[in-house]
Write a structure and sequence with these properties.
This is DUF2306 domain-containing protein. The protein is mainly alpha-helical. The chain has one domain. The longest helix has 22 residues.
Length: about 170
């Protein structure tokens, strides 16, 4: 592991990485705490701020250019900002189940899946984590995607019963 690619990156990319790593680490803490718990509220607010900083900073990163200076990740960033607003609006209106669903979706689809793409060869996080073998990042991405699909698919008890041969 080497931090040289991080320090060589533009300031906006450094901000993006720091905000994303903060959101990635705080997400489970907020989700695993009891609702209305002080720690949940404080960590949740910091998580929302980190997610917003991640999404906003990504709007100024133009590494992948598919439509002019933009790429699909820019649409994801706008969707993330809208989702953050909706999640906060849900909890303020007392719609806790909607809030929980929105925030979990933002974590998985706004952090998890894009995070996997950062491990592909040629990306900064791949260069940081796998400086000697960039293809290791591809293997790690494939393994993480398979694990994520397995966990996501087994989140319902009927899937577990089916795998164990019980109906």
């Amino acid at each position: 592991m080497t931090l040289a690619p991080f320090f060589d990156a533009p300031l906006i990319v450094q901000l993006h990485i720091v905000a994303a790593l903060l959101a990635l680490g705080l997400g489970p803490v907020a989700m695993l705490r009891r609702r209305r718990d002080l720690v949940h509220r404080v960590v949740g607010r910091v998580w929302v701020a980190a997610m917003a900083a991640t999404a906003l900073s990504s709007l100024f990163i133009y590494t992948i250019r598919l439509i002019g200076p933009f790429s699909p990740i820019h649409a994801l960033s706008i969707a993330t900002l809208v989702g953050l607003w909706a999640g906060v609006a849900h909890v303020r209106a007392g719609r806790v189940a909607d809030h929980r669903s929105t925030m979990l979706s933002l974590y998985v689809f706004g952090m998890g899946i894009p995070g996997l793409f950062t491990l592909l060869p040629g990306r900064i996080m791949n260069a940081i984590l796998f400086p000697a073998g960039p293809m290791a990042g591809f293997v790690a991405t494939a393994a993480a995607a398979c694990l994520l699909a397995l966990v996501w698919g087994m989140r319902r008890p009927d899937h577990i019963r089916m795998l164990m041969g019980r109906t």
